[in-house]
TrEMBL record:
<dbReference type="InterPro" id="IPR013106">
    <property type="entry name" value="Ig_V-set"/>
</dbReference>
<dbReference type="InterPro" id="IPR003599">
    <property type="entry name" value="Ig_sub"/>
</dbReference>
<dbReference type="InterPro" id="IPR013783">
    <property type="entry name" value="Ig-like_fold"/>
</dbReference>
<keyword id="KW-0732">Signal</keyword>
<dbReference type="InterPro" id="IPR007110">
    <property type="entry name" value="Ig-like_dom"/>
</dbReference>
<feature type="signal peptide">
    <location>
        <begin position="1"/>
        <end position="17"/>
    </location>
</feature>
<feature type="domain" description="Ig-like">
    <location>
        <begin position="107"/>
        <end position="213"/>
    </location>
</feature>
<dbReference type="GO" id="GO:0005615">
    <property type="term" value="C:extracellular space"/>
</dbReference>
<feature type="domain" description="Ig-like">
    <location>
        <begin position="27"/>
        <end position="101"/>
    </location>
</feature>
<dbReference type="InterPro" id="IPR042178">
    <property type="entry name" value="Serpin_sf_1"/>
</dbReference>
<dbReference type="InterPro" id="IPR023796">
    <property type="entry name" value="Serpin_dom"/>
</dbReference>
<dbReference type="InterPro" id="IPR036179">
    <property type="entry name" value="Ig-like_dom_sf"/>
</dbReference>
<dbReference type="InterPro" id="IPR000215">
    <property type="entry name" value="Serpin_fam"/>
</dbReference>
<dbReference type="Pfam" id="PF07686">
    <property type="entry name" value="V-set"/>
</dbReference>
<dbReference type="InterPro" id="IPR042185">
    <property type="entry name" value="Serpin_sf_2"/>
</dbReference>
<dbReference type="GO" id="GO:0004867">
    <property type="term" value="F:serine-type endopeptidase inhibitor activity"/>
</dbReference>
<dbReference type="InterPro" id="IPR036186">
    <property type="entry name" value="Serpin_sf"/>
</dbReference>
Length: 613
């Protein structure tokens, strides 16, 4: 009798489950659902069918118990995972299974490329430094270059560099290998790049997926340095308007106090004399040739409104009304290697009666040339301005000024000396100007903290003397600090309305000649560019940096006057108030015609007469 044992296999599987995970993610997949009892003799097997078959890269799967573990998932883990669970159940073999489809989201690759920026007309090298390429020297480079064009990719066929190829201009003969096999760089060189060469270039390694990208950006060549800046100064609109003179007068006063503020601090215990009107005239002459940002900076330094086209015609008018008071020598010396703009030369002559002078290649000859010119222009009052002029100088600004107005009244002869009190309290014997009956305006100015005297001069000029309350340096510095353009303007207005009164006046005799080296001053006024790379393109299209700039002022206060002695005969029958300037004081020579100072300065020590600032 045979017993037949029937082995019954009951088999079922659950529905497929789709799983999507990010790249490099860890995941655990259970074969048996949670809360499902598992027999002790059950056997679990996992199988994997990858989406991409790669015989050279077999993926090993690992599981523990009924759970499959995948770590650092990537594209090779994508596929179908099937688990089979076999177990006995009351004499029957039960087989169950689950299927999982796994997808791995690879991050979108970040494509990097180099951007090469080149100016049209120059050569450029496009690098291709690879990781996977290799080549034996003198063999064909293991890369392919392509250029992206409308509608697709255009292969490039670089040539080996030789003279014959370099003589041709077409693209085929402008692209050359520029390789460095030891550094794995398979770059190319493109000669004489044009705007049409701009775009994306691709270097692909043969037998590899590695591709390097290079973006070529081609910029237009810069315009010539002086493009659009060489024309003449624009004409003045409505040249007969009286508004322009008021604008220039206010600017000149503001400029004058600005220059004084800069110069007074350079050496606070020395004499100072300068002509702000003369310096402004020199800078406005230079302004004729300035364009762009340099023009704006010069206008700002001169306290002019921007784009004030009438400055030159108004400066010409003001210079004409001061020709009897001021002997001015002002011009621009330039290197023989420079070519000046014709428009600048013509307008310089028109507005400033000055023609730029050419230097020589000899320093000693240049010195004689300049000093002779200065002596001629100042009627021999200033005979020396420079010790040398470097032949390598490109442009030199020179300005000398002599004041030749006179007293409205003469001072009386006085042989004896008087005591001048210095900051330290030391008293010095100095020659003096004295009048027992001099007509002047005087008043104490509360804003300036100074006693002010106005002494009339010829040609509608006045000499203002500002005396601090004491002879101390602190009192003097406070007065100087208060000398802004607003306070000075108010002072002049108030003093001009006052009736002249007779007073006893004592002043030290003064004969001042001071040379001011202007580079430091101009830099402090915001004009550093003048000495570096200014836009003086209307003056010269070449290198136009200023090499040197200097100003020399001469002023003498002596007893000479224009009215006869009889008009000022001495009378002791009555006493008069006195105005005595026998301590450090500020002087201002004011022109009513100009409406601004012709000279400004200070007398700290009347004995020191010839100085350099």
């Amino acid at each position: 009798m045979y017993r037949i044992i029937l082995l019954l296999f009951l088999e079922f599987s659950t529905t497929s489950c789709d799983l999507t995970i990010p790249s490099n993610f860890n995941i655990s997949i259970p074969c048996i659902p949670d809360k499902t009892p598992q027999l002790s003799d059950s056997e679990i097997i996992w199988r994997f069918r990858p989406h991409k078959q790669d015989p050279d890269s077999e993926v090993e799967i690992k599981w523990k118990g009924n759970i499959l573990h995948i770590t650092n998932a990537n594209g090779s883990n994508e596929g179908v995972y099937t688990c089979v669970n076999e177990e006995w159940n009351e004499e029957a073999r039960v087989r169950s299974g689950r299927t999982f489809t796994l997808r791995v989201d690879e991050p979108i690759p970040v494509q990097e490329w180099k951007a090469m920026i080149i100016v049209a007309g120059y050569d450029v090298m496009l690098p291709c430094k690879t990781k996977s390429s290799s080549s034996v020297p003198n063999e064909t480079p293991p890369v392919v270059w392509k250029r992206e064009i409308t509608g697709g990719m255009m292969p490039l066929y670089p040539s080996d560099m030789d003279e014959e190829h370099q003589q041709k201009d077409d693209m085929k003969h402008r692209v050359f290998w520029d390789t460095s096999p030891k550094e794995q760089d398979w770059g190319i060189k493109i000669l004489k790049v044009s705007k049409e060469d701009a775009g994306m270039y691709y270097c692909t390694v043969k037998k590899s997926t590695e591709t390097l990208m290079v973006e070529l950006v081609v910029k237009d060549p810069p315009l010539p340095r002086c493009f659009g800046f060489t024309g003449p100064w624009e004409p003045c609109i409505d040249p007969d308007s009286r508004s322009w003179r008021s604008i220039l007068q206010e600017s000149l006063l503001h400029f004058s106090t600005s220059v004084y503020s800069q110069l007074k601090g350079s050496n606070p215990k020395t004499n100072l004399i300068f002509s702000p009107f003369s310096i402004a005239s020199t800078l406005s002459n230079l302004l004729l040739g300035a364009r762009g940002e340099t023009r704006t900076k010069l206008e700002n330094a001169l306290k002019l409104p921007n784009e004030f086209s009438c400055v030159h015609s108004e400066m010409k008018r003001l210079k004409q009304v001061t020709k009897n008071s001021l002997s001015m020598a002002s011009t621009i010396y330039y290197s023989p290697e420079e070519t000046l703009g014709e428009a600048f030369i013509n307008q310089s002559l028109e507005f400033y009666d000055a023609v730029p002078q050419m230097l020589t290649n000899d320093s000693n000859q240049n010195m004689k040339l300049v000093n002779k010119w200065v002596a001629e222009k100042t009627n021999g009052k200033i005979t020396h301005l420079v010790d040398e002029v470097d032949p390598s100088s490109l442009f030199v600004l020179l300005n000398a000024v002599y004041f030749n107005s006179k007293w409205k009244m003469v001072f009386e002869p006085m042989n004896k000396q008087v005591q001048f009190t210095k900051f330290s309290g030391e008293e010095k014997n100095v020659a003096a100007l004295y009048s027992s009956k001099y007509k002047l305006a005087m008043s104490y100015n509360t804003k300036l903290k100074a006693q002010v005297g106005r002494l009339p001069l010829t040609d509608k000029n006045s000499l203002y003397i500002l005396l601090p309350p004491t002879s101390t340096e602190e009192s003097f510095s406070l007065m100087e600090k208060n000398m802004n353009h607003t306070n000075l303007s108010e002072m002049v207005f108030e003093m001009s309305k006052m009736t002249l009164q007779t007073a006893e006046v004592t002043l030290p005799k003064i004969k001042l000649a001071v040379t001011t080296l202007l580079p430091k001053l101009l830099r402090n006024l915001g004009l550093s560019d003048l000495f570096n790379d200014p836009n003086l393109c209307a003056l010269s299209t070449g290198d136009s940096a200023i090499s040197d700039a200097r100003h020399r002022a001469f002023l003498a206060l002596t007893e000479k006057g224009v009215e006869g002695a009889a008009a000022t005969s001495i009378s002791l029958s009555r006493s008069f108030p006195s105005f005595t300037a026998l301590q450090p004081f500020v002087l201002i020579v004011w022109s009513d015609e100009v409406g601004a100072p012709l000279f400004m300065g200070r007398i700290i020590d009347p004995i020191e007469t010839n100085q350099r600032k």
